[in-house]
Amino acid sequence: QVQLVESGGGWVQAGGSLRLSCAFSGRRYAMGWFRQAPGKEREFVAAITYNGRGTYYADSVKGRFTISRDNAKNTMYLQIHSLKPEDTAVYLCAADNPSGNWYQAYEYHYWGQGTQVTVSS
């Protein structure tokens, strides 16, 4: 029954910005964003605790990406600035990580289908 639906991806030139959204059903606890490029493993991007008090970022995106959530609107966001070609990937929303280890994909119970972000140089 749990559904996660990403939106907001698209094509952008290097240096541009996007805001990704993840609409989720029900009460979802710790959540995160991952990305996956063709031929590569799923990569941690950012995570956020249930109340938004704790946020965590991959070194590659720190200072450029901001994760947030609005539980009243059942939506999690990823605000992205200063996009680089190496940010090109499918961005996936993940939910319900009870472990406290935010960086491993296998710790999350639920996943969306992803939204494509393509950055041209």
Explain the overall architecture:
This protein is mainly beta and 121 residues long. The protein is built from no helices and 11 strands. The model has no long low-confidence stretch (mean pLDDT 97).
**Quaternary organization:** single chain
What Rg is obtained from the alpha carbons, in whole angstroms?
13 Å
Q: Provide the structure class.
A: mainly beta
* Alpha plus pi helix count: 0
Cα end-to-end separation: 40 Å
Largest sheet: 7 strands, mixed
Unreliable spans are: none
Average pLDDT level:
97
Tell me the helix content: under 10%
Q: What pattern of helices and strands is seen along the backbone?
A: EEEEEEEEEEE
The proportion of strand residues reads: over 45%
| Tally of DSSP β-strands | 11
Shape: globular
Please describe the structure with a list of short key phrases separated by commas or semicolons.
seven-stranded mixed sheet, 121 residues
